[in-house]
Amino acid sequence: MPYEPSEFLASHFRNAGLDLTEQVDAQLRRVAPDSPNIPLYRDMMLTVLRMAQDDRNRWNAKITLQTLGELENAFRVLEQFKGRRKVTVFGSARTPLEHPLYAQARELGARLAKAGMMVITGAGGGIMAATHEGSGRDNSLGFNITLPFEQHANPTMEGSGNLLPFHFFFIRKLFFVKEADGLVLCPGGFGTLDEALEVLTLIQTGKSPLVPVVLLDTPDGNFWKGALNFISEQLEANRYILPADMKLMRLVHSPEEAVAEIEQFYTNFHSSRWLKNVFVIRMKHALSEAALAHMQEAFADLRVSDAFRQHEYAGEEHDEVQFSHLTRLAFNFPGRDHGRLRELVDYINLPENWAPPL
Q1: Residue pair 269/322 in contact by the 8 Å Cβ criterion
Q2: Phi-psi region of 290 (alpha: psi -120 to 50; beta: other; left: phi over 0)
Q3: Given a cut of 90, is residue 135 above it in pLDDT?
Q4: Do residues 282 and 268 lie in contact, with contact meaning Cβ atoms separated by under 8 Å?
Q5: Could you tell me which of 327, 333, 290 has the C-alpha nearest to residue 310?
Q6: Could you tell me which residues come within 8 angstroms of residue 329 by beta carbon, excluding any fewer than 6 positions away?
Q7: Which residue has the higher pLDDT, 127 or 151?
Q8: Distances 103 to 94, 107, 261 between C-alpha atoms, Å
């Protein structure tokens, strides 16, 4: 059942002759008296109480407990790395050491670390091991999956405090995407293709924030070229996807190009978020009046009504005041055609579109 607002849950218990809302509130305020998230925690606890009241299935309760425990542990561990950009790298665990892709992945890790970014992988062998070799333990995060048979992380991550074990694949997938400021996809098998298509689906549908998605292959490789040809000839041509959806991913043939693509994405663009029904892009540099005027027509399809509005921080984002120095670009985005949104990001990243410094 989807998340239910607290009033619905509270009335459910009142109808059953129980008034638990005030009791739950009181306990929460003893634990976290200054938290602005009390209503959210209240709903979580009321949801668990409703599960206990129904008490339908022990397996359901065990899944819920395991899920909450894994989420809480990951949130706590990853909090210490909150200020650093992170890039998730996917690729085959079967890539041998002597393969050119292995050397390429190792160089990718080293270049990402040098650029100040952390590397996230599944902590296994092949591409994952190579990327962590390059980035080093201090610049690496490993999201390992616990399996019934013996399972070891790669040598870089084994025994590291930056290694997080996950029981459920779906929670691990959540954090692969949630923590990523960029994604690099190297050639691989079913698992790699699964991750590639899932990531693109999440970004295409707006379920995940827009981030750079880089397809990395060797200079003479045609793994991703063949995949892109199939997507263009079968999906785009048959209108299963929009033409602009092809802009959500970029094909490169060297680690240098991969890192440059990610850095370029953040030249001016910083981050984005929804504030009620308004989409807000945070920018390091304000746009010039001429660029803003051009954007009103060139990207009119990205706004439902009104115009693109550029403004300074006005206290509307109470939970992220650390970004108060960034300029805001606000508009009524319809929430579809994220490929076109990527084109807008490319536009605001062009230095010639920035306002001259004061």
Answers
A1: no
A2: alpha
A3: yes
A4: no
A5: 327
A6: 280, 281, 283, 287, 308, 309, 310, 348
A7: 127
A8: 14, 6, 19
- H, E, C per residue of the chain: CCCCCHHHHHHHHHHCCCCCHHHHHHHHHHHCCCCCCHHHHHHHHHHHHHHHHHCCCHHHHHHHHHHHHHHHHHHHHHHHHCCCCEEEEECCCCCCCCCHHHHHHHHHHHHHHHCCCEEEECCCCCHHHHHHHHHCHHHEEEEEECCCCCCCCCCCCCCCCCEEEECCHHHHHHHHHHCCCEEEECCCCHHHHHHHHHHHHHHHCCCCCCCCEEEECCCCCCHHHHHHHHHHHHHHCCCCCCHHHHHHEEEECCHHHHHHHHHHHCCCEEEEEEECCEEEEEECCCECHHHHHHHHHHCHHHCCCCCCEEECCCCCCCCCHHHCCCEEEEECCCCCCHHHHHHHHHHHCCHHHECCCC
What are the Cα distances from residue 12, in Å, to 22, 42, 198, 246? 14, 14, 37, 47
**Strand-strand pairing, 86-90 and 140-145:** unpaired
**Nearest alpha carbon to residue 125 among 188, 41, 202, 204:** 188
Q: Are 251 and 224 in contact (CB under 8 A)?
A: yes
Tokens of 117: 């970014």
Structure tokens at 235: 């999906």
Q: What is the tens place of the pLDDT at every residue in 136-170?
A: 999 999 999 887 665 689 999 999 999 999 999 99
pLDDT tens by residue, 168-198: 999 999 999 999 999 999 999 999 999 999 9
> Please, is 176 exposed, middle or buried when counting C-beta atoms within 10 Å of its C-beta (0-12, 13-18, 19+)?
buried
Q: With 0-12 CB in 10 A as exposed, 13-18 as middle and 19+ as buried, what is 248?
A: buried
The Cα 240–Cα 271 span in angstroms is 29
